[in-house]
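From the methods appendix. Each design record in this collection lists the tokenized structure first, followed by the designed amino acid sequence. Records were kept in a plain field format so they could be parsed without special tools. The example shown here is representative of the layout used throughout.

RECORD:
FOLD TOKENS (52 positions):
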């Protein structure tokens, strides 16, 4: 890829990230499961009661 293509791609990715933050949790917001703190994998507790 040329430098111009890389800069254009970076600008597109940056715009996508910023738009996701602007939408927050409104209807129509696109949130990947791994970005959602409510995703169950983040709320697993061990045998001592600590969240892993």
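DESIGN:
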């Amino acid at each position: 890829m040329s430098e111009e293509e890389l800069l254009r791609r970076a600008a597109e990715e940056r715009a996508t990230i910023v738009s996701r933050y602007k939408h927050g949790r409104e209807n129509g917001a696109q949130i990947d499961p791994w970005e959602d703190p409510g995703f169950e994998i983040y709320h697993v507790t061990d045998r001592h009661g600590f969240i892993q």
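APPENDIX NOTE: The two ends are 40 Å apart (CA to CA).
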